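Section 3.1 - Work completed
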Amino acid sequence: MTRLSRRCVPPAPGGPRVRALLALLTLCALLLPGPPARADTPLDLDTGGRITDTVGALGLRRAQVTSALDRLHSTHHVQLYVTYVRDFSGRSGHDWADATADRNGLGPRDVLLAVATHRQQYAVSAAGDSGFRRAQLDAVAATAIAPAVAQHDWAGAAIGAADGYGSVLRGEPVRPPAISPGDSDPGGGLVPRHRQVWLPVAVAAVVCLTLLCLCSRRAAQRRAARRARRAARANRAARAARAARAARASRTDRAGGADPVDRAVVATSTEPGLTRMVQPLTPLPALDAEAARSLVETDDAVRTSAEELLFAAAQLGGAATRPFAEAVGYAKGELADAFRLRQRLDDTPYEDEELRRRALDEICSHCTSANRRLDAESEAFDRLRGLRANAAGILAHAEAAARALAPRIDTAEAALAALTGCCAGTALSAFARHPAEARDRLAFATAGLAEARRALTAGDADGAAVSLRAAEAALSQARTLTTAALRRAHELTGTAARLRAAVLDAEAGLAAARSGPASAEGARRAATAERVLTGVRRDMAGGRYDPRAVLRRVEEAAASLDAEAARTGGGRADERRARRRVERAVLAARGEVAAARDFVSTHRGAVGCRARTRLAEAERHLTRARGLPADEGREILSATGHADSLARQARALAEHDVTDYLTGGGAGRPAPYDPEASRPARALGGALLGGVIIAGLLPATFGGGATRGRLADGAEG
C-alpha cells in the first residue's frame, strides 16, 4: 500500500521568540526610511503647491515657508518655488535648477530655489526677463540664502529668499534671516533622528511583541491538540489494519484482484503571497486617440487664450500683458512641437510599436507642458483683467465694437457678391457663408452684452462676467469671419491682376525655351506649357474662373520651363522672372494658410486633429519660407509649395469635419447647428460650433485644460 504523508519539522527551541524578533525587524524596516534616492534630473515639482520637499527638510516649519511664499506673491506677484533634494545628481546646481524650471514650464514671474541638503548646495533659477537684476539675485543669495544653508536652516533659506526678493523689489536692503539650525542631513542615513518617527515605531513594536506572544501561546496549544488527535487516529487506523489482515487470511478465494486500498486525500493550501501590481500599458489605439484628443483640447486652449489676450492688451496695454503673451508664446511652441510629431507619424508611421508609443507619449507630454504653463498664469490673468471689477468699462467697449462690426459684415457680403460675376463658384464657395455666420456670432454677442448689462444693473457681478466673456469670444469670431471674407475678396482681385503678369512671364519663358538649345526634354516641357497657357487664356476669356487655381497652373508650367532654362544657363531675365514668381508664391501661400487658420479658429467646436495637424505644418513651412534669404528662391518655392498644399488639405479636412458635425455625424442625432433655423437658434448653434461656449454652455477663458472653464466655478475675479 502506497502511503502519502507530509513531513512535519518540530519547532526549534525558542521558535516563537525568533519569529517575534523577525517580525519586529520587518516592522522597523517598513517604518524606517530607506536609503536616500538620487534626485530626478530634472525634477517634477509638486502639483499641489510651490514646495517640493523630497527629503523632509522642513518638518514642522512648512507652514512658515508657505506663509513667506504667499506674502511675496500677494505683494509683488512673484511666484517663488522651493524644492529640497538630497543632491543634484552630479550636475551643477544652476544646470539642475534651470532644467527643472524648463521642465515645469515656469514663467518670467516665477523663481525656483533648489537646495541639495547632503552637500549643503543651493541654486536659483530666474528668467532673464524676470525683473530681477543679477546683482539683486546675488545679494539675496549671499545675505539671505547662503548663511541659512550653511547652518542647516533649510526653512530659513526659503523664508530668507522670499523676504529678500520682496526687499529688493521695494528698493530696500536685504536683511539676513534669523537662523534656526535644523537637521544637518535630512533624509540622509538609515536611522531617523526625530521623536515623531521613533515614538510610533516603539509603540508599534510593543503592540507587535504582545500580539505575537499571545499568538505563540495559542499556537502551541493548538499544536498539542493536533498531536493528540493524530495519535488517536493512528491508533484507530492500526486496529483497523490488523482486523483487515485477519479477514483476508481467512478467505479461501485469493484469485486475482488487488487489495482494495483506501486512498488518502491530502488537502494542501498555500498562503497567499504578495503580488506585484503592474500597471498595464495603454493599448496603442487608445494612446493614439488620447494624443489626438490632447492636441485638439490644447489647441482650443491656446486659441482661446490668445483671443482673450488681445482683449486684455486693448484694455490694459501691451506692457501689462507681456508675461501672459510670453506664456501663450511658450504654449504655442510646445503645441507646434506636438503637431510636428503628429505630422511625422501621419507621414511615415513607425512600424515599431515602441517607437510609435514613445512619439505618442511625447505628444501628450508637450500638450501637458503647454496647458500647465497657461494654467499657472490664469489666476494672475484674472487679477490683472478684473473682469468683474471692470465690467462696466469692458462692457461699454464691447458694445461699441459690436455696433461698428455690423456695417463691416455688410461690406464683406457686398464684396463677395460683386465677384460672383467674374469668379467661378469654386473660388467663393468656401467663403460664401462667412457673412451669415458672422451675423450669427454677432447676434449671440449682442444677446450676451444685453444680459451682461441687465446683470450689472441687478448687481450680479458674476453673471455679468460670464455673459461678457461669452460676448467677447463671439465678437472675436464674428470679426475673424468678416475679415476672412474681405481678405478673400481682396486676394481674388489681386490674384487676377497677378495672373496677367504671370502669363506674360510664362510666355517669355516659353519663347526662351524655344529659342534655346533643342532637346527632347525641353521640347516636351515647352509643349506642356503651351497647352497650359492655351487653356488659361480660354478660361480668362470665358469670364468666370478661379484666379487662384488658374494662377497655380501657370506657375507650375513656368517652374518647369525655368528648371530647364537653368540647366542651359539662363540670363538675367530668367532671374527676374524667378524672383517675381517667388513673390507670387509667398502671397498665395500666405492667403491659403490664413484662410485655413480662420476657418479652424471659427469652427473649432467641430474640427478634429487631422485638420489642425495639417494647418500647423503649413504654418511651419510658411514661417520657414519667410525666414529664408531672398537669394534662396528655390528653397522658398519649395517651402511655400508645401505650405499652400498643406493649408488646402487642412481646409478640406476641416470642412469635412464641420459637415459631419452639422449632419449629426450620420448617427441619427439632431444637428447641433442648423443654418436654416431661426436667428436665436442659429446664434446658439454658431457659438457651439465655434467653441465660444463649452460644457455647461459657459464661455472658455484664458488658461489651460484645468482652468479654461473656471467661470463655471465662479472663480473669475
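Second construct:
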Amino acid sequence: MIQAIGLTSHPRKDLPPAVDDVSFRARTGCVTALLGASDGGGTTTLRLMLELQQGRGITYFRGRPLHHIAHPSREVGVVLGDVPGHPARTVRGHLRMLCAAVGAPVTRADDVLEVVGLVSLREQGLGTLSRGMDRRLGLACALLADPHALVLDEPTGGLSAREGAWLHGVLRAHATRGGTVLFTTDDAKEAARTADQVVTLEAGRLVADQDAAEFARTRLRPRVAVRSPHAARLASLLAKEARSLRRSVEVVQEDGSRLSVYGNTCGEVGETAFRHGILVHQLADEVGDARPSAVDAREQAPVEQGRGPALDAEAGARSGSDAREGATRSATSAAGESKESLQEAAVASTHDTAAERPPVADAAPAPGADSPTRITPNAASASQSSLSPLPPPIAIRTAPNPLRPLRYELRRATGVSTGYLTVAAATALSALLCLFLGRTGHTPQLRLLAAWPGELPLPPAALGAGLLGALAFGEEFRHPALAADRGTVPRRLGFLAAKLAVAAATALLLAGLAVGCDAVVLHLVYGGELTEVPPDWLSASANWISFMIGCAWAGVLAAGVFRSTTAGLAAVLAVPIVVVPLVQKALEGPSVRSAAGFPGRLRELTLLEWPLGAERYVAGGLRMVAQPVGSALMLSLVVLLGAYLLTAVRGRAR
C-alpha cells in the first residue's frame, strides 16, 4: 500500500506551487489512476513521492518512507519516461547490466523479457526501438527486482490503442498478484476503464478520490454519438423537441457529420430521426469527457442548448452542487484517512532502520476507511492540531549504488563496441607510428617499442587508455541507466573502486597488446635488431604499466569530476602539456640531498622479509615517480581523487 500525505512542492516564482497538500492512498491489489491535465501536477506528485524533488510531505510504501528502505528498487519499480540506455547496447545486454545493479540473477533478464514480450527483440539495439517497444523495455527494467509497487508516469502516452491495452493488462496482472499500481494519465475515460480507484487533481490540488464506478457516474457524462449527413438538421430538431418537452438536453456538433447528445438516449434520438426521415450512419452510447470545472464552465459554452432559461439555471445549480458535494465528500474522506494513516505510520516508522527487512503485510484499514465519510469541522480541526502544522520536508534521495558494482562495470564496458574499437584503433596507430620511427633510426629502443616520439605529449596507447577511462564515467552521465528517473550517477567509493579496477585491467591489456604488436611489426619489417630485449626490461615494463594505468585512472577521475568524456580525455592530455612543465620548473636547481638507498631503508622499516628482487621493483617505481611525467601524473591523480571525494561528500551533505 502507498500512502501519500501532505505532498506540497516549493512555490515557483510568481506562481503557486505545482502541487499543494495532496493526500491519497493506493491500496494493495488495486490499480490507482492519478488523473489530471498535463500541467495539473501529476508528474510532480510522483517525483515528490519518490523523493526526486524537494518539497514537503511524506510517502509511505508499506509503512516505510523510501529513504528508510535499504534497496528501493525491490520495493517500487519506476517508469518516468524513455529508457536512457546506450543506443548501441542490446535489449538483453541492458537488462543483464541492470541485473547486477539491483542484485538480481542474470537469468532474471530473460524472465522479464518473456513477461513484456521482447524475446524476439533481445538482440536489438536500444536506438532502434519504437515508442511502444521502448515503453515495454522500461516496464521490464522496473520489474527486474520484482518490486511490490509500480509507479508509472503517463505509461500510454504516444502508444497505440493496442499497445495501451496490453500495457494495462500487465499492470492489472501485477495488481492481481498482490502488488500496488499507481499511474498518471490525462484521459478520464482511460482512468475509468482501467483503474479501480481514480484520484483527480486540478491545478495541483486534490479534487476527488473515488472508486472507478463512482468516478464514472459522477465525473463523466454519458452521451449518444450520432453520425449523419444531415447532422445540422437533426441537431435543430432535437433541440426543438427538448424545448417543447422542457427537458435538459445538450446537443454539440463536433464536426460536419457528428453530433454528441447529452441528456438523451439512443432510442429517443433514433425515433426523432426516423419520424423526420433523416439518414443515420452511427448511433451509439458513449462515455464523454470529464465534467468541466467551474472555471471551464464559464469559459466554454455548448454549441446548441435544448432547454429553457429557468431550467438551465435550476439544472446547472443542481448539478454543480451535486458535483461539489461529491468532490468535497471524497476529498475530505481521503484527507481524514491520510491523517489517521500518518499517525499510525509515524509510530511504526520510529522502529524502522535503514537495514532491509522482510516485507510486512499491509496494515488493516480503520473501520469504514474505504467508504466515504463526512468529517465535521470540529473533528478536522482536532485532527490537525494533533499533528505538526507543516508536513516534513522532502530531501532529494541520492542515486542508488549498484549492489554488484564490479559485475555491473564489466557488463557496461563489454556491452558496446566502443571499447573494442578504441583498443583496436590505439593498437593500429601505435604499430604504424613505430614503423615510421624505426625507419628514421633516431628514437631510443624503449620509446620505439612504446611508439612515443619526443614531439608527441603521449603515445597512442596511453591516449587510448585515457579515453577508455574517461568513457567509464562519461557514458554514465550521457546515458544514466542507474538513475533513469533523475539523470544522475552515484558517487559511492565502491562504485569508483569498480571503475578504477576495470580501467586498470583494460590499461594493462592495452599496454601489453601495444608493445607486443609493435615488436612483431618491427621484427617483420626491419628484422630482429630493433626488438632485442633491453637489460633493464623489468623496471621498464613496470614503468610502462604504471604509466598506462595512471593515464586510465586520470581519465576515470576527471570524467567523474567534470561529468564528460571530453573533459576526461582533456585532463589526460593536460598532464604532459600543462602539469609536466610546472613540475620541471619546480624541480629546477641543484639538489643537496639524495634518496640513494631508500629501498633498503624502507625494507628495514617494514621489518618483513622481501622477496628476491623486490628492491629493483621499488627502485624502478621511484625512478618513474622522480621523472617529470611520473611526478606530474601522480600529482594529477591526487588532485583529481581529492576533487572527486569532495564532490561526493558535498552531494551527500546537500
